Amino acid sequence: MAQQQLKDLPILSEYDISPITGFLPVEEPLQVLPDPYFAPWEETFQKFNGLLLASRLRQYVNELPVLDAAKLKTKAEQRRGYLILCMLSHAYVWGKHEQAAEVLPAALAVPWQKVADMLEMQPVLTHAAVVMWNWRLLYKDGPRDLNNLDTLGTLSGSSDESWFYLVTTAIEATGAPVLSKILTAIQQARDNNIVGLTQELEGIRGIIEDLVSVLRRMFERCDPYVFYWKVRPYLAGWENMAEAGLPNGVRYEGVDNGEYKKLAGGSAAQSSLIHALDIAFGVEHHPTGFRPNKAGASALANGSPAVPSPTPAATAAPAAVKPTNFIQKMRFYMPGPHRSFLTHLTEISNIRQFVTEKAAGERTVEVEKLITVYDECVHQIKVFRDVHIQMVTLYIVMQANRGPSISHGGFAPQPHAQAQKTEQTANGTADKSAASSANSANSSNGTGEKPSKGSSILYPQKVIFGAPYGLAKKQEAGNDVVRGTGGTDLIPFLRQSRDETNESKIVPTPSITARKQSTAA
Ligand code: HEM
């Protein structure tokens, strides 16, 4: 029988990836656009924190000219332009102590759409903008680590926000060498080289351990209160944001006949690095509450039919109708070349299959060692997710439960949002979890004072609550274990993601969730 032709391994540079800096650009991001034509953007970017604080940003932006983004010649210029437009637009839409703006003026909307097209991205704030293209080196010849990085811009003007981005930038930098190692490991598996593969996996394990160490540094200089109340609201997009005053999303003036767009906001779930690790180790994510049954058919735990991806190009999975979870959906928001790289990687990913096959055969010393190192790699990805869950608990769930220290949390009440909630409740369609989140934050602001109605509207995690992939909808009837407090619905999603990682081990260790379930039973 003729041997099946294997697809070539990807050449990193063809996907805008460096073997040294990974998904981060090799050169430092531009700190200013060189063409004076773009001076209006640069000047606005320089003072937008002050304008926002003084509630004058919208007025200022409304007077800006509509510039032609086609004049952004290089990739570096396009990324700088995109970063500026992401920050100005999110500041414009969410405002400060202002109602959310439903219409983005042409001066931002038109060039934003144009430059997003050039980068094969979406006109909405993304991980790429604020993490990958928003840093500079303090000492030019120094490393890309937390002792040598600064941001180019923040929405809140706070050092906490800078740290939040920079920890993630440092994670991207630390993880960069893993990409070449993954490709070498795939080649070793093709060559049936057990010892070579084991060595490569040992290197990968060390890098993932380093990622966990950098992740833990988030706690050092990013204050959870500042993050939750002052930073996170600005990262939100406009998908499922009815309660924040954007039931239809945002209209981009001068783009697509002014149609509303609903786009999710920025999230490190858009990090191509973490996706690459999942693909390399065969970690499969499913919609929350969803588990493929033994016959291979798909259904959601709540009985709903599986939801096909709205962005088939963004998902790498070959299956015709495969339910897409939030993590896969996030590929839609990555730069085009990185998304394509993940698709290519999925097509050639063979490490898990190779180790599984070896594990089913003769258990030589080499095979035992291979299995152990493989499982240790997967375990480290799981540990990364464990630490991440602790982080989300502190930075989101606990902050939402405590409520703001001033009654409105720094945001304007949205009367029509409250009206809509009432209407939804009347129709029996209210997102109970979102409502309970709002109630929870309203009733516990730590001052004994009852906040004004609608004051808790700006919880960007509603992107999650309302997502069609069903974080809030996956609960079994009568099971209210995780309902009732702000943010808690995130946790099942993240736990499942962690448990799916654990399940990728060759010799599985019981997950915490599984242990709890068996104890309860
Ligand atoms: C204060 C720090 C952080 C908070 C509060 C936080 C919060 C969240 C939340 C709420 C989600 C759910 C999806 C969403 O709303 O976007 C999420 C997902 C995710 N975050 Fe973070 N995050 C933090 C830091 C990080 C960092 C530094 C990374 C590193 C790359 C990261 C990687 C991810 C990934 C990969 C997901 C998708 C879920 C998964 O793969 O398990 N996060 N994060």
Number of strands: 5
Rg result: 23 Å
Strand order of the largest sheet: 1-4-5
Spatial separation of the terminal alpha carbons? 51 Å
Indicate the multimeric state.
single chain
Strand content: under 5%
Overall structural class, as computed from helix and strand content, comes to mainly alpha
Q: Report the biggest beta sheet as strand number plus sense, adding barrel if it closes.
A: 3 strands, mixed
Bound compounds, each kind once, are: protoporphyrin IX containing FE
Helix content: 40-55%
Q: Could you name the ranges where pLDDT drops below 50 across 5 or more consecutive residues?
A: 293-321, 417-488
Q: Treating each run of at least 4 consecutive H or I residues as one helix, how many helices?
A: 20
- N-to-C SSE series? HHHEHHEEHHHHHEEHHHHHHHHHH
Basic shape: globular
Mean residue pLDDT: 82
GO cellular component, one term: cytoplasm
Protein name: Indoleamine 2,3-dioxygenase
Region (Disordered): 407-455, 492-521
Keywords: Heme, Iron, Metal-binding
Structure overview:
The structure is a single chain. This protein has 20 helices and five strands. The chain is an all-alpha fold and 521 residues long. Strands 1-4-5 form a three-stranded mixed sheet. The relative contact order is 0.11. The structure holds protoporphyrin IX containing FE. The site of protoporphyrin IX containing FE (HEM) has 26 residues, from helix 6, helix 15, helix 18 and helix 19. Keywords: Heme, Iron, Metal-binding.
